[in-house]
């Protein structure tokens, strides 16, 4: 039975002389109290030494990840596979399973094997002959440093800490600059208040204060290097009629010292911005091209490192920086925030208010993808980030234009986008249409010929002619036919409409009914008068 023992100098293969000792593990340490006792239990068969620290680091990292390194593969093929018939004792269970898959060897790794490894390590100097102790110590120290660098992901080209510290320092500088500039404006405003309204740029304001000092020197000072002619004339005119108070020379000296500090901090901030941009392009070029160096650095600083940021999903990247609003919304059961630090990105700022949520979601998805490419990719360039930025800009254009798309299979051009405006039209119901009382009957209008016939008939009735027979049908004249054809508008003649006229008997009957009603009403009035007279008598 062979034992695979790992050291900082190489792999040692021991042969277990007495297999029964493995079962009696409680008294095994007593056998290893002396070098002679250790030699009676195990015997060194082969030792495969590492050539340098790089090979040792590769073998150690492979063992940590549960893989078989190239050096171990060669050793197993050369010394172990031919002699091992039963089992191979391995200290690491993951490494034992990997060896079993590669070489089809039965590996044993349990508590008894771990105790045997501890005993061998206690007498390692005596068991490994031909290897000086000083060399073993140097190899162990070099491997420890190399392994620490590997675990910390140390790389001089990609340093997350530098970016995080630079971005935090930029934020602090912005706050300090803002406080200093406001203090300078307020302090110098007591002496020359009109200058703050004329010059809105903070850097220009500080430089002008540094140059002119008191307002009495404004007319003598040349400001053409930092101001255009029109602004220079306004400043000089305002200095002559200024309403500010007078200040001493000591006051203006302190104000100018503050201006010197502001100018130096501004210059350092510009230098630090260039440094941050160079670091971001070296570390995360795709993320920098997509969302900018400042937003990318803030995301990395918020996550802690680029590796931590790459492990976050796109939905988390989208709301980075809005954690308080998120938990407050969850607590009060309201709408969760749509964006955090990514709100200040250029693509989100170009959107209208209704499209900011959509664009921040798409930008967060692409930013998460670019972060993983930058963190885990080899020989990364910014081409992928530039390509995705162009795609997002095209999508932004579609969103702002109203999602216009050409219909497939047709040759129609895109219609212009028109916003929908709802027009409120109010119609009032005519209440008078519900009542039918008091309406006059609408009579049919007669033509002039019909009116002449009716009037002639009435004249005959008055003269006593009662036996006139009514005409039932009246034929339309050719002029009416032409008029009907024109009204039709189709060129085809319409059917003549049959019109009924009132007969003379009907008109005579109506006259008789009227006269009878008059007679009856007169008779009733006479009877009522007679009754009144009888009652009175």
Automatic annotation (TrEMBL):
Keywords: Nucleus, Ribosome biogenesis. Residues 511-537 have a biased composition (Basic and acidic residues). PROSITE patterns: NOP. It is found in: Nucleus, Nucleolus. InterPro entries: Nop56/Nop58 (IPR045056), NOP58/56_N (IPR012974), Nop_C (IPR042239), Nop_dom (IPR002687), Nop_dom_sf (IPR036070), NOSIC (IPR012976). Residues 438-537 are annotated as: Disordered. Residues 283-401 form the Nop domain. The keyword Manganese does not apply. Belongs to the NOP5/NOP56 family. This is Nop domain-containing protein. The lineage of its organism: Eukaryota, Metazoa, Ecdysozoa, Arthropoda, Hexapoda.
């Amino acid at each position: 039975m062979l034992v695979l023992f790992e050291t900082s100098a190489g792999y040692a293969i021991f042969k277990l002389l007495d297999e029964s000792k493995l079962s009696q593990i409680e008294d095994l340490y007593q056998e290893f109290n002396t070098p002679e006792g250790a030699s009676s239990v195990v015997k060194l068969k082969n030792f495969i030494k590492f050539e340098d620290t790089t090979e040792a680091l590769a073998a150690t990292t492979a063992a940590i990840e549960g893989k078989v390194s190239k050096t171990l593969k060669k050793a197993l093929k050369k010394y172990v596979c031919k002699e091992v018939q039963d089992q191979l004792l391995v200290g690491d269970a993951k490494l034992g399973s990997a060896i079993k898959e590669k070489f089809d060897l039965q590996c044993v790794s349990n508590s008894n094997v771990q105790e045997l490894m501890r005993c061998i390590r206690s007498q390692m100097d005596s068991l490994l002959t031909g290897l000086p102790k000083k060399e073993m110590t140097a190899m162990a120290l070099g491997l420890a440093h190399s392994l620490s660098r590997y675990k910390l992901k140390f790389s001089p080209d990609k340093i997350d800490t530098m970016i995080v510290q630079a971005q935090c320092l930029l934020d602090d500088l912005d706050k300090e600059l803002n406080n200093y500039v406001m203090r300078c404006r307020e302090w110098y405003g007591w002496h020359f208040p009109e200058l703050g309204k004329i010059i809105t740029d903070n850097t220009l304001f500080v430089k002008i204060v540094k140059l002119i000092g008191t307002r009495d020197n404004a007319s003598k000072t040349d400001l053409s290097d930092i101001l255009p002619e029109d602004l220079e004339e306004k400043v000089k005119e305002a200095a002559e009629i200024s309403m500010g108070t007078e200040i001493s020379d000591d006051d203006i000296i302190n104000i100018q010292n503050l201006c010197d500090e502001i100018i130096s901090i501004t210059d350092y901030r510009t230098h630090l911005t260039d440094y941050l941009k160079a670091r971001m392009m070296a570390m995360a070029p795709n993320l920098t091209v997509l969302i900018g160096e400042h937003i990318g650095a803030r995301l990395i600083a918020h996550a802690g490192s680029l590796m931590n940021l790459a492990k976050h999903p796109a939905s988390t990247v989208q709301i980075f920086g809005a954690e308080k609003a998120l938990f407050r919304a969850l607590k009060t059961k309201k709408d969760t925030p749509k964006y955090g630090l990514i709100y200040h990105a250029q693509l989100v700022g170009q959107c209208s208010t209704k499209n900011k949520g959509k664009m921040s979601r798409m930008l967060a998805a692409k930013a998460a993808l670019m972060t993983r490419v930058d963190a885990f990719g080899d020989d990364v360039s910014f081409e992928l980030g530039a390509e995705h930025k162009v795609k997002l800009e095209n999508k932004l254009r579609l969103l702002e234009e109203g999602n216009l798309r050409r219909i497939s299979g047709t040759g129609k051009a895109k219609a212009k986008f028109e916003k929908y405006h709802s027009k409120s039209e109010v119609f009032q119901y005519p209440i008078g249409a519900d009542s039918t009382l008091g309406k006059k009957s609408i009579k049919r209008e007669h033509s002039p010929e019909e009116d002449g016939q009716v009037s002639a008939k009435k004249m005959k009735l008055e003269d006593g002619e009662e036996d006139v027979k009514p005409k039932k049908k009246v034929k339309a004249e050719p002029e009416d036919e032409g008029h009907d054809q024109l009204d039709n508008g189709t060129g085809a003649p319409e059917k003549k409409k049959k019109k009924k006229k009132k007969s003379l008997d009907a008109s005579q009957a109506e006259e008789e009914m009227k006269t009878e009603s008059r007679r009856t009403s007169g008779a009733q009035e006479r009877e009522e008068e007679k009754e009144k007279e009888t009652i009175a008598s």
